[in-house]
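Have a think about this chain, tokens included, and walk me through the fold.
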Amino acid sequence: MADQPSSILVFVGLDLVGDGLMKLPFLRALRAAYPAARITWLAGKGKTVYAGVLAPLIEGLVDEVIEDAHIGNRWWELLAPRPLRGRYFDLILDTQRRVLTTLIVRRIRHQRFISAAADWHLSDLRPPAGSAKPPAMIRQILTLIELASGRPAVPDAPLILDPQTRAEAERRLPEGAVYVGLAPGAGGKHKCWPLENYIALAMRQVKAGRVPVMFLGPDERQWEDEIRDAVPGALLPLDFAATPLLTIALGRRLSVAVANDSGAGHMMAAAEIPLIALFGPTSPEKFAPVTRRLTIVRAQSFGGEAMDAIPLSAVADSVETILEAGRSG
């Protein structure tokens, strides 16, 4: 096969919103590695947000999305006609590890097939012997690109936001202020730095002449009145109609953001702004967003496991360091 395949198939089971956000660096690295290839994203076992709410975000990264393809579920598919009606791909990247599914996906006609299933024994290429498995899922699937291309996987391909979304973000966060983003929520309360710390951090921004921007998801709406009462200068730009695309567009208007281990953190990472990610009971090695300007603050660095072990001063100092570097840069 030529170094630059003309057709690439990426197989996944399905993609929820969180999956789609975490996999964006993979898509960007794949497009950066193969700028001229036709890339097909195949969700064999369910829906994918790349065919739904995140579809506008992958413009230029993916050429075709197939969802709910019913591929990789049952053993008898090994005896059925080839999946995808005999279509052919120069390169197939299998992002999952279930052996039966991999055996079925491998029946799609191809030149080269790369998969970590069965400890890489079904793959045409594999890492050097003794290579450690990366703890993070995103790093594991980036390995597929590195094996295929022979180069480091770098998520350099741009995310393109449509003009309407960018204009709406500018309307909600107009030019003329230094915006500091704060995302106090997470999928589990054990991953949340205390809300009172976020409020205190927001107050510090107000006193410094900046505008704190609080990003609340649907499960954090009960905090809205408390935040507005405690921090009159704070902006809460998200409403119930806000999409991940708008959140990313708003993120691009921030000078720095602070987030827990959460979907909001991955959206701030996609915005490519300096991000301070707070971790306690969950592992940053496994769950930290992939972004070039990332500062990780861990509870373990301060003698604890729970999020409340992270002192306000440590996060506030990180904010100041990043903003000072931005001014001097």
Summary: The chain has two domains: 7-149, 164-328. The mean pLDDT is 95. The radius of gyration is 21 Å.
